[in-house]
């Protein structure tokens, strides 16, 4: 069974940092685009960051550019989201996802595998 499992969420003060991890099991994802999305209460799920197969290309939402860094370790079948300078508006449930595509996509429906989500809460 294919599974993506997020970890690393929690409560942090504004300006602080968190590192989210996403471990994959059941198959290897080294030919999948990996992405992070988030969903705040009452809002639609939105793209946060994506990384190419090798990690050589990345993409970010404008709202997190310069603060968040996505990376992957294919040998460990794991990928990460380093979040710095966190703001209260970053509060959401964060999801990792995998897309069987060649190029990074921001479209939710393009991702076929999803984790269960991890809560990130940033206090002011």
In terms of topology, how is this protein built?
Layout: E1 3-7, E2 10-13, E3 18-25, E4 33-39, E5 46-51, E6 58-60, E7 68-73, E8 78-83, E9 92-99, E10 113-114, E11 118-123
Parallel strand pairs: 2-11
Antiparallel strand pairs: 1-3, 3-8, 4-5, 4-9, 5-6, 7-8, 9-10, 9-11
Features:
about 120 residues; mainly beta; seven-stranded mixed β-sheet; four-stranded antiparallel β-sheet; about 50% strand
Alpha-beta classification: mainly beta
Distance between the termini: 40 Å
Question: Would you count the extended β strands for me?
Answer: 11
Mean pLDDT: 95
Helix content: under 10%
- Catalogue the unreliable spans: none
The biggest sheet, with number of strands, parallel, antiparallel or mixed sense and barrel status, is: 7 strands, mixed
Explain the overall architecture:
The protein is built from no helices and 11 strands. The radius of gyration is 13 Å and the shape is globular.
Give a brief rundown of this model.
The chain is mainly β and 124 residues long.
